[in-house]
Amino acid sequence: PYLSRTKSFTNTFLYGDFPITRVDTGKSPYKNVLVNDLVLDKYGKKMSKSRGNTVEPMELFDKYGVDALRWYLLYVSPVWTPTRFDEDGLKEILSKFIGTIKNVYAFFALYANTDSIKPQDFFVEYKDRPELDRWIVSKYNNLVKYVTESMDVYDHNKSVRAIQNFVNDELSNWYIRRSRRRFWETELTEDKKAVYNTTYEILVGISQLIAPFAPYLSEEIYRNLTGEASVHLSYYPKANEDLIDENIEKRMDLVKDIVSLGRASRENAKIKVRQPIQKIHIDGKYQELIDDLVPLIKEELNVKEVVFEHDLNEFMDFSLKPNFKIAGPMLGNNVKAFAGILSKADAL
Predict the structure, then answer these.
(1) What domain range includes position 3?
(2) Is the model more confident about 101 or about 338?
(3) What CA–CA distances, in Å, run from 22 to 19, 25, 226, 231?
(4) Residue environment code for 112-151, b if the CB has 16+ CB neighbours within 10 A, otherwise e
(5) DSSP class of 44
(6) Which are the contacts of 170, defined by CB distance < 8 A and separation ≥ 6?
(7) Domain of 156: which CATH number?
């Protein structure tokens, strides 16, 4: 058990209560103490009515919901450091996390209801599911491990950040987006069963995982998915080590990174994704790891050819420059001459 109090209670309540209870009962009233620091305004100043920089919690509840506010306060900084409250950040949480998880659930529910499908009625073995499904299941179980470890040391900031990154980047922006066509299949194939099973399992697991931080949102999603009484009467998720596959994660994560870099290169060159490009060059050391995933890269980047280059020298331009903060005081007026000598040197 642990006790959570603000810093102002440290000298009075915590230090006073501990010895009194210890003497009276012979037992410690708590084993751990989590001390909350102050919530400041967005400029780092203490809130006060005289400054006119206070916020009304009930107005925020009505405007954004209690779960969004709770998630924001946990996400923005660890509770033991001062929190700078910025309503724009709260709006961002509402859009980027609360909105995203609701959209993923709504997408799943739409097609499940349209197809009159209950994923609980069938089960595709994990080994028989596509690699994309096994990847998201592995990432989810690693997430459960990380969140549990963080919560065990009361670092809820790390927990909510990890969950939000998973929901936004891996579940929504990659898995669901890559799986849309599978939901559109007219027949209930094994592949369609697999995507229903996987999405259902992840959504149920996420609803349980966020229950301590967003109890109302988690309750709504969990009850709608399972029909059970309450998410708060269910067991908290435990990672299944048998479903964690580091190699699959390494492969798919690398492809995601390549796609991200490719899109950034397109953006820098002002070439839209709908315009095909001839080829993309990738470091040849990755060929063995992701060679069979080349079609995915080609589709994501709208590129005709993926070339693995084993000699990257022709694509690189190396140059040497001094660190002027260090070299300046040491060389004085000679630093410019030194920079000129370095610029002519072969960095390889």
Answers:
(1) 1-36
(2) 101
(3) 5, 6, 45, 37
(4) beeeebebeeeebebeebbebbbbbbbbbbbbbbbbeebb
(5) S
(6) 136, 139
(7) 1.10.730.10
pTM: 0.84
Residue carrying structure tokens 């209690």: 66
pLDDT at 116 over 70: yes
Residue 285 shares a structural domain with residue 324 = no
**Of 259, 263, 281, the residue nearest 272 (C-alpha):** 263
Task: Report the distance separating Cα 226 and Cα 220, nearest Å.
Answer: 10
Tokens representing residue 264 in the block = 């950034």
DSSP-based three-state secondary structure for 3: strand
Q: Is the same domain home to 109 and 220?
A: yes
Provide the 3-class DSSP secondary structure of residue 123: coil
Residue where one domain finishes, among candidates 242, 267, 287: 242
In a domain, 166, yes or no: yes
Within 10 Å of residue 9's Cβ, how many Cβ atoms? 17
Mark out the alpha helices in 153-245 (DSSP H runs): 156-165, 177-184, 190-209, 215-226
Nearest to 205 by CA among 229, 241, 174, 240: 240
User: Percent of the chain having pLDDT more than 70?
Assistant: 94
> In this structure, are 147 and 211 located in the same domain?
yes
Residue where a domain terminates, one of 242, 262, 280: 242
Residues 186-224 pLDDT 10s: 999 999 999 999 999 999 999 999 999 999 999 999 999
The distance from CA 272 to its chain's CA centroid, rounded to whole angstroms, is 27
Contact 30, 3 (CB under 8 A): yes
Do 256 and 174 meet the contact criterion of CB atoms below 8 Å apart?
Answer: yes
Residue type, 199: T
Query: Mean pLDDT over all residues of the chain?
Result: 90
Question: 276 near 303, Cβ under 8 Å?
Answer: yes
Sign of the dihedral defined by the CA atoms of residues 274, 275, 278, 279, in that order: negative
- φ/ψ of residue 291, rounded to 5: -55, -40
Specify the DSSP class assigned to residue 83: E
Distance CA 109, CA 226 (A): 12
Q: For the purposes of burial, counting CB atoms within 10 Å of the CB of 223, is it exposed (0-12), middle (13-18) or buried (19 or more)?
A: middle
